[in-house]
């Protein structure tokens, strides 16, 4: 924990008015953003495939983007949508 605090406080004057912003930016610099981006892309792609398979593509994409793998489970547990009834054809004009 001391090591993380040292990294967060690196180059920060605790008495400065913008100390919070410097600490926040130091902590955000420690986050592996590239890995998080690619994991999110993977979650959305798998969610789209599962949604397509269940007949709910957009729902699969949205749930995977918001909830990650938990969204996959929700898509898989929801029932397939019922097919829409096709109305009978109109009579031909004379």
General description of the model:
- There is one protein chain.
- The chain has helices at 2-8, 19-29, 33-54, 57-67, 69-77.
- It is mainly alpha-helical and 94 residues long.
- It folds into 2 domains: 1-31, no CATH class; 32-80, no CATH class.
- Helix 4 packs antiparallel against helix 5.
- The protein is elongated.
The number of helical elements comes to: 5
The gross shape turns out to be elongated
Poorly predicted regions are none
Q: Which series of helices and strands comes N to C?
A: HHHHH
Instruction: Give the number of domains.
Output: 2
> Percent of residues in beta strands?
under 5%
Q: N- to C-terminal separation? A: 85 Å
What's this model, at a glance?
The chain crosses the membrane at residues 30-52, 58-77. The chain has 2 domains: 1-31, no CATH class; 32-80, no CATH class. It starts with a helix and ends in a 17-residue tail after the last helix.
Secondary-structure map:
Blueprint: H1 2-8, H2 19-29, H3 33-54, H4 57-67, H5 69-77
Helix pairs in contact: 3-4, 3-5, 4-5
Jot down its keywords.
about 90 residues, mainly alpha, 5 helices, about 65% helix, elongated
């Amino acid at each position: 924990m001391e090591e993380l605090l040292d990294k967060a406080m690196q180059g920060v004057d605790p008495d400065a008015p913008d100390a919070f912003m410097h600490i926040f930016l130091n902590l955000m610099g420690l986050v592996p953003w590239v890995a998080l981006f690619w994991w999110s892309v993977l979650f959305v792609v798998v969610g789209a495939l599962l949604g397509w398979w269940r007949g709910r593509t957009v729902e699969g994409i949205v749930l995977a983007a918001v909830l990650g793998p938990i969204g996959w489970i929700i898509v898989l547990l929801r029932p397939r949508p019922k097919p829409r009834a096709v109305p009978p054809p109109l009579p031909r004009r004379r």
